[in-house]
Here is the input.
Amino acid sequence: MDDLYREQILEHYQAPHNFGTLGAPTVSRDGRNPNCGDQITMQLEIDAAGKITDVAFSGRGCAISMASTSLLTDELRGKSLDEVRALGTPYVMELLGITVGPARIHCALLGLETTQKAIDETPAR
Amino acid sequence: MTLTTARSTWTDTAGNLDPHKVRAAFPILATRPGGRPLHYLDSAATAQRSQRVVDAVSEFLLNHNANPHRGAYTLGQEATDAYEAARARTAAFLSVPAEELVMLGSATEALNLVARSWGRANIGRGDVVLVTEAEHHANLIPWQQIVREVDADLEFIPVNDVTGEILWDRLDGLLKLKPKIVAVPHVSNVLGSIAPLAEIAAQVHAAGALLSVDGCQAVANMPVNIPATGADFYAFSAHKMGALFSGGGLWARAELLAEMAPIETGGDMIREVRLRDALFAEGTQRFEAGTPDASGTVAMAAACDLIDEFGREAIHRHEVRMLDRVLRELPAALPDVRILGTQNAAERAGLVAFSSATVHAHDLAEILDRRGVAIRAGHHCAMPLHEQLELSATARVSVAPYTTDDDLDALFAGLRDAWKIFAR
Here is the structure.
């Protein structure tokens, strides 16, 4: 059994959840790791009360960046923007079920960081 | 003068470079990072340093150190002599006159000097600068900046969408745009292919343009005689030759250097300074503002000595043999591999980049690291080329005089590990 490339991570990498685009996203944000070329687009649908109602992402990247983003998107629906703003590295590690070393931490955090940037850019209403 | 060793020190009985003998000159190769043997296959990013280079730097710093070009005392003269002798040694290595070799902090600095000095003076509104789509960022962004500043146009020699190979047969048509300068890599840091510079230079010159060459991936891996390339500017990096991280150089003909303005000003590049103006030094010195990197240049000369002891023909022969094995055996280890560049190892220098739709380059690098195999994963500072090929990242294996069949065996074993994990 491989610690890093566990069954769950490979499943999410090979068949990511919530992969695609939304019909009418409230906000859409690109995220990149400039040193590796990992690239995703995160789309969120946010209701008037400031809760995430739907989510989708697309892009290309390594197993860690794709799986962590896929796992994250499964958790986002129903969360408030403030709840998502408060998420950090430990939350992503918990989702992945492993502790990713410094060489891959930017891969693991790409999905969360892009989501948080998307939220920052969401127009106030 | 460096103590030289007989060529047989580094060769086998058949006269070929013996990488096992070469390894003894590079102490780091005997270390065990993370408790694993080191299979260093990332020399295209930075070459490993030999004991010889480190000793040369120690000898200079501990016994001859002073600020070059300044001291009226004996030690100061020793430092000046060491610096200028090292410049001359490096110039001889590249078959150019020492008076035409500008010593700089890096190849990036050298390529910026071409764009910001020659480019700013010679490129105007509506003029064309021609580069390849495969360009390393250091030979692309300086031109993007100048072109934006003077409202000129940047045009591109395209690449094959599948293999990434630069389509040199398109050059003739693009030269009808009458570019002022054409910037190309001698050896692409992603494709590994050796550009046919003599033919390119003839075409470029016939169209009235100058040719600027990024030689970073060429100088340590194959014989390089700059005048024979036909280049007008030739840039190279010290650390990719096994010298220090700081250091690089730019060669240009004396008359071209004479008409170029310095982009950095300060001490050591002047002839006369008054409060409101200054007269600049002539020759290479006008581009070397501030205290020169004497220790880095001494290291570069020592690296040249060692490379010449190995023999540049012998190095290229050895590396082609290693690359040929990589090209032949990759598909068996990684069944869906997509190899960039030519399948003919003899047309390459130093490296092979590839991708797999099943295993991302980062995951390959991570899994290879478990066997102590160090490769590069990413876009290798050539993002536009990767976009063109619709790849987010590639894995790059690069070889050196110290690369052995054991290193490649470990590489292939690691690639099979990765395939076993991901192909399910």
Notes: The first helix of chain B runs from residue 19 to 23. Chain B touches chain A through 17 residues (CB under 8 Å). Chain B has 14 helices and 15 strands.
